[in-house]
Amino acid sequence: MEFKKIQLNGFKSFADKTNFLIEDGLTGIVGPNGCGKSNIVESLRWVMGETSAKSMRGSGMEDVIFSGTSNKASKNIAEVSVSVANKNNDGPVQFRELDEVNVRRKIEKDKGSKFYINDKEVRARDAQMFFADLSTGAHSPSMISQGRIGALVTAKPTDRRAILEEAAGIAGLHVRRHEAELRLSAAENNLKRADELRRQQEKQLANLQKQAEEANKYKGISDEIKKIEAGLYYLKLLEIDKEIRIENEINTEAESEVGGFNNKISELENSVKSEVDKVTPLREKNIENLSKIQRLNLELQGLDEENIRIQEEIENIKKSLQTLDDDINREKGIVIDANSNEKRLKEEKSGLIEIDSKYYETEKKSNEDLDRVKNKLKLEIDKVKELISSQKNDEAVSVLDACRIIIEEYADSYSKNQNIKKESIKRSERISIIDKEIESWINLLSNSEKMVSELSERKNKFNIQSEKLDNQPKMQAEKKRSNFRKFENFRERKNRK
User: Fold this and answer.
1) CB count, 10 Å around CB of 82?
2) What is the pLDDT of residue 235?
3) Which CATH number is 119's domain given?
4) Residues 57/20, Cβ–Cβ less than 8 Å
5) What's the pLDDT at 28?
6) What does the alpha-carbon distance between residue 97 and residue 88 come to, in Å, rounded to a whole number?
7) More confident residue, 319 or 61
8) What is the rounded (10 degree) CA torsion for 283, 288, 290, 291?
9) Final residue belonging to a domain, choices 138, 157, 184
10) Do the domain assignments include residue 268?
11) pTM to 2 decimals?
């Protein structure tokens, strides 16, 4: 069998589908470093069943998928297929009749890889065995890379033997032999495990036999117990039948006696019925009297409760009247205080108004003196300015000396005027305060008079209510006497009967 074509799609640097034809003779691939020559050899090893990502120069098997460049986007699938010609029909047994065999391996991100032979999905082991039967594979010595010749020259005899076996075409047999040895080893382990299970089952069988014997003994004993219980039940049934016959005889004797007793009972019932017919009117009358007595007792109890309630209400009204008297006295005291304070404030206000009218003339005279001194000082200042402008400094100095006396007189007049104004302002402010206080006392007086009127009305209402309640005990006493008379009449009638 001969390799005819390698097809790569999305494998490492081969983003697009690429075909490499392997013609008769020597086929070579020439290119600069980094162009992807080694990727072709790795794709061949990968499709033959390589499982090591490290040998594929990656950290994971998904690193063989094209990761993208600045010009092309990355892919999610990588696929490599190899076409093998079988013209002489000397391939593996199951493929000898085929002229061409196509082996394909496909990997998807997060899904793993799959193998196909002639578009039929197979196990990875089947693909590896296919190439092993062809004396090749992912780790075949026939795939020579850099440093491989030196390694073959210095290889151990066992490694050289592997090369010779592959050249002789028996590498597939060794692989199958290795698999057969593994299966034999697994079969031996299974046989050992089966032997252990057999011994365990034998032990369990002995225990089960003992349990079966005990169960048979238990079953026999249970049958004997059931027979004995059946005999006991039969004896009990015989005793019960005997007791039933005795009871029937007793019942026949008792029925005759019961007949005599029933006749006597019927006679007594008739006599009782006649007596009950005589007593019934008296009983009904007695029940009527008892209901009337009960009603009277309830009325008396209601009167007592009403009397207690009225007494409590009278006490509450007395407390309310006392509270109202205290409130009326308090409000009357407030009225007296308001009247006296209003009178006092009005007297103070009239006194302040009288003082203010007296000081009016004084304030007017103080203002006139102040204006006079002010004008005089102004004339002197104008005179000084004229002397200074005329450069008569000596005369100006003498005039300034005279101005000092005028200034002192002005200051004295100004001070007196300001004091008179302050006193006048104080009196005005006090009069305003007095007006507010008078208004406040007038409002308080009005409110207190209204409160006294309202409290007096409430007091009158309570007095009227108290008078009504005072008459209630008399009315209740009359009702009680009437009820007692009725009660005594019932008792007399009852005693007579």
Assistant:
1) 21
2) 87
3) 3.40.50.300
4) no
5) 84
6) 9
7) 61
8) 140
9) 138
10) no
11) 0.37
